[in-house]
Write the structure tokens for this entry.
Amino acid sequence: MQGRDRTPRGRLRIYLGAAPGVGKTYAMLSEARRARERGRDVVVGFVETHDRLRTAELLDGLEVIPRRTHHHRGATFSELDTDAVIARKPRIALVDEYAHTNVPGSRNPKRWQDVEAILDAGIDVISTVNIQHLESLNDVVEQITGVAQRETVPDDLVRRAAQIELVDMSPEALLRRMAHGNVYAPEQVDAAMANYFRVGNLTALRELALLWLAGKVDEQLDRYRADHGIAGTWEARERVVVALAGGAEGDTLVRRAARIAARSKGADLLAVHVTRSDGPTSGSDPASLARQRTLVESLGGTYHQVVGDDVPRALLDFARGVNATQLVLGASRRGRLAQIVTRGVGMTTTARSGSIDVHLVPHEATSGRAAYRSRAALTRTRRISGWAMALVAMPALTAAMLPFSFTLPSEILLFLLLVVGVALVGGMWPALTAAVLGFGLLNWFFTPPLHTLTISAPENLLALLIFVLVAAMVSTVVDLAARRSREAARSRADAEVLSTLAGHVLRGDSALTSLMARLMEVYGLSAVTLLERDGESWRVVALAGGPPSTSPGRADTDVAVGDDLVLAVRGRLLDAADRQVLEAFAAEAAVALRQQRLREQAEQAKPLAEADRMRTALLAAVSHDLRTPLASAKAAVESLRNTEIDWTPGDRKELLATADESLVKLDRLVSNLLDMSRLQAGALGVTLVPIAVEDIVPRAIDDLGPLRDRVKGDVRGSLPEVVADPALLERVLVNLMANAVRYSPGEEPVVVTGSWHGDHVEIRVIDRGPGIPPEAYEKVFMPFQRLGDRDNHTGVGLGLALSRGLTEAMGGTLTPAETPGGGLTMTVSLRRVP
């Protein structure tokens, strides 16, 4: 019996957007029209145009499946008719808003479930979804925007789509679309821009969309390479892998790799350590690896560990697995003889790397000259023991061998064994002495003709020369290893001390005392004193431990820092190497002392400079701006007192109005000056209580007097209460609204909106005036400054400065921003009541 053919599943195509309004539905309809022109059977299952004219125009000529009507709680809703779409059996169906939640009573709770049913029927579907509706990003989006997304869709469903196309738009372009009314109705634009559609929100959402889609692209690329058996590296994206062996050089390698990745913008940084299956790799220090892992992660990279007995193969397998383009390795730490014998990890990896660029980075561990910096590589006891073995053990060995009849090669091997022992104990020079002495003893007692220095057989001469050469090489290697071990320990100690020194540079006021205490602790000193010349004597300016050194001559070691400063230490004499570190400490102590004094001088001078600046600005303001309303009021009063002129009732009324208006302006200016002086002196009384924003805004609008008709309040009662001083907050809003009205065109109202995000409530005063450039934002808050004034008679420029001061006194912030479409938005942010 022949089986029935199963209907192939339809293909899903999704237009992914970073935010509403970027044009997903428009792109979907445009694709549908192109498909119809190519002869494809296309129907519209569900498309939401949101009353956008250009989007609705694209529906003309497309077949639309009627929606299914549902009644819920006294309201009527229309949803996708899934059964009708399946019964129609088109080639392609358009289903908008993939994450939409259906009305109760629908066939499925979620629209993506409707789409799954249509796909199972063998129908291709084109849908749309915004990045904020993906389940894995739900909490991130809420943290960024302050808005919880109730409609979500599992990421896996979107990732399984046959095609995902990102519909992208810069935040500025989207805000311009909104300002032109292409996204929301005009009465909704200001509220939307003040809440969800802020530049920071849109930028973050856009980055989320790009990163999420990049992950999807990586999956597709890896799957394609695996399906086609492609093992080579494709440089679709720069990835830098740094190999860590667990040595001290790893820090240098990580930083070099980070710089390489930084030069390749957008490159990934990955660190990998290869450990052998039978245990840790030789020379690997777990503490160094832990520190280097922290360093990699602080630089934005990731740390990985793989197991492999063949280190070059394991490194390259990892690099090719992550599609790396560059591999950073440290130059070999082995000696020259070892490098001649085997190629090493670096050279082997380079030879097998193929298309991956390999960087071999030199570091201090590869420097041969560093091994000879210290003459005292071994302790005195070991050197004496080595000389004793060379001078005593060689004759003793000769005496012990004389009764026996050994062949010359055996005798040479015994002497070589003793030379190696001397090298291990006493180092190079005792071993070389032992080698020369052994050559003579072997020649005299064991090489025919005996008891002469003559060597009859050439092969015996060659054997003795090889003996001396091998002994010299062994001695050199042992001495070099001892020197390197000692220098490494010393360098590590110095590095730790200097790193501590560098950390103190960023300390606070106690940096000088802490620095000297650390020096005393490191070198086991009893006292560290910083002395400064005071005429003919010295005085102590800083001390750690005690008793102090009262002059440089009374210290065990002292380091001069200039002509007038000396760092003196007591407790023990320091050698030359320690003195270099001590000089670094002394220089830093001088810098710390200088910074401490400069800080003290700056603190003393700051109030004087501020008072002088305020006094100068106040005099300039009083000489000009306060004189104007005073002169107007005086002129009006003098005119009224003039009995020689017979004023009409209208003229008298106008003069009184002029005097009243001038005195009100004068009163406002004086009040602002007094409040600013109280702020500067810290004497402003602030009473913080929970208040409702919707109660304060109407009162502030009423306080504007004739200007109240130019302001439109749009503050909803759903806002939480804020912690503020009611009178001060009202004063702040009055100043901001008056300033906004002054610079707004007559036909454009000033809009006051409110929203809350996390722990703060934001009140925005939005105008459509000329605005100010971003680089001048902070200048508008300086007292006695006016930017962009159309005249020079609008006050002393205290309104915004006072508003910011009052806002900060209440624990809030006042920040300016550009109004999309032109203008300035002032945002007052206050803590909401928990």
Summary: Residues 294 and 303 are 9 Å apart (CA to CA).
